[in-house]
Design goal:
CATH architecture of the largest domain: 3-Layer(aba) Sandwich
Structural class: alpha/beta
CATH topology of the largest domain: Rossmann fold
CATH class of the largest domain: Alpha Beta
Radius of gyration: 27 Å
Number of helices: 14
Number of strands: 20
Shape: globular
Helix content: 25-40%
Largest sheet: 6 strands, mixed
Strand order of the largest sheet: 13-18-17-14-15-16
Number of domains: 4
Length: 427
């Protein structure tokens, strides 16, 4: 078998390819690899500053296009260069263990940080790296830095810089560990020193072949929505529950929206209740203007962000992501003349309703959606995962309905104390 491998032409990228292929040959001695090297936009454009680029495809686009066009079966990147999200049709199949993730300040032979003259110039393309150096010497000046590692180091010889900040892993891979350098303290770039191996989605042969190099935690995530991108996790999203909105003609919903003008405070205990409420608001013929003078309360930042995106104003957020956290916020509110509306899941605990009743606050609680269990085929094999993530008590019940019991040999992670309590009852 001959496998084409796509990568950049830079010396560091070629060293990375050599590192990966050397290890792969140990696991697959009968497989041959054919490197396909081409420059990326980031290699050609040495004028654009990297400080404000963010997680773009500046160093990866050309190689990923080669992969999508079937010009290669594998693409190898510095993991820290990956865009978010990955291009459609491409997936990460392995993340290597990597080398030293720290940053290093390279100086001329014999120089130390203390012996650098006042106002010495340090070259770096990263604001974070610049701040790390400033913590050590406030008087130093800085200039932008582009080019491959050799070109960057050469600025010491030309006198353009008195110090150059680069990744320690890059120096190690290029055999430059003899250089005079100081490892910088502090947090480094996400995934620095690690290599990402990409393949086309659905290429099971490459997924199997490269599994030997993959250091990611294999996670089965049972919640409704997949979490934010984390390239250090090999995440399989398998929702065991689904949201079923109640029809707008439901008598309780009709009553709730007939009285919408009278509500002064609205409580949102999930992203789903926020999304559905604003959907019902529009379908009921109301303008968003009706919400301008109302006080909105959200459990957690995620729910608050949804409210903001939907046009909500006057949002207060309970940092503790449960009903009790919202009660802590409400304790500081004058609800003497308030009329509180709480749209919620049919499975919500009655904690908020009980609190408002005990406090004597006029309120109306209305279930606007049901949470149903679902079984999607094919059912993932538990054996392939290291960790299972539960996001609600409903996901615990959904998992049990499908798999019968909680696996004792796997790591079980609960999102939130209520979900943890549901797990604790079964373990």
């Amino acid at each position: 078998m001959l496998i084409a491998v796509g990568a950049r032409t830079s010396p560091l990228s070629q060293a990375q390819v050599k590192e990966v292929l050397c290890e792969l040959r140990q696991h697959h001695p009968h497989v041959d690899f054919d490197p396909k090297l081409l420059p990326s936009r980031g290699d050609k454009d040495l004028q654009t500053s990297l400080r404000t680029l963010g997680k773009t495809d500046f160093f990866t686009k050309e190689i990923d296009e080669l992969l999508l066009e079937d010009g290669c079966r594998i693409a190898i990147h510095s993991a820290k260069d990956l865009p978010e999200p990955l291009p459609k049709g491409i997936c990460m199949v392995a993340l290597t263990k990597g080398l030293d993730p720290s940053d290093s300040l390279v100086m001329r032979p014999g120089m130390t940080l203390a012996s650098l003259p006042p106002g010495a110039i340090i070259a770096t393309s990263s604001e974070r790296r610049e701040n790390c150096v400033k913590e050590l010497r406030r008087d130093l000046r800085f200039c932008d830095l582009r080019g491959n590692i050799g070109q960057r180091i050469s600025k010491l010889d030309t006198g353009e810089a008195d110090g150059v900040v680069v990744a320690e892993a890059a120096l190690l891979r290029l055999g430059l560990s003899h250089l005079n350098r100081l490892r910088l303290p502090g947090v480094t770039t996400y995934l620095q020193g690690q290599l990402a191996l990409l393949a086309r989605e659905g290429d099971l042969e490459m997924q199997t072949l490269l599994r030997c190099l993959d250091t990611r935690k294999k996670t089965l995530y049972l919640g409704l929505d997949a979490p934010e991108i984390d390239y250090q996790v090999d995440l399989h999203h398998y929702p065991v529950i689904k949201i079923v909105p109640r029809p707008l003609k439901n008598p309780d919903l009709q009553h709730a929206f007939r009285n919408l003008k009278s509500y002064t405070h609205l409580l949102f205990t999930s992203k789903n209740s926020a999304t559905l409420f604003f959907d019902y608001l529009q379908r009921s013929g109301y303008s968003h203007d009706i919400m301008q003078d109302k006080h909105l309360f959200a459990v957690g930042q995620a729910t608050a962000e949804v409210l903001h995106l939907l046009g909500g104003k006057n949002i207060q957020t309970a940092e503790r992501e449960q009903a009790e956290g919202l009660i802590e916020v409400l304790e500081n509110c004058d609800l003497t003349r308030g009329h509180v509306f709480w749209p919620h899941s049919a499975l919500s605990r009655p904690v908020l309703k009980d609190y408002l009743s005990k406090r004597g606050v006029q309120h109306y609680a209305c279930a606007i959606y049901d949470t149903m269990l679902q079984k999607i085929e094919p059912v993932p094999s538990i054996e392939t995962f290291d960790e299972i993530v539960f996001t609600s008590p409903s996901t615990v019940q959904g998992f049990l309905a499908i798999y019968g019991a909680l696996p004792k040999e796997k790591s079980l992670k609960a999102i939130g104390p209520i979900t943890q309590a549901a797990l604790d009852k079964l373990t």
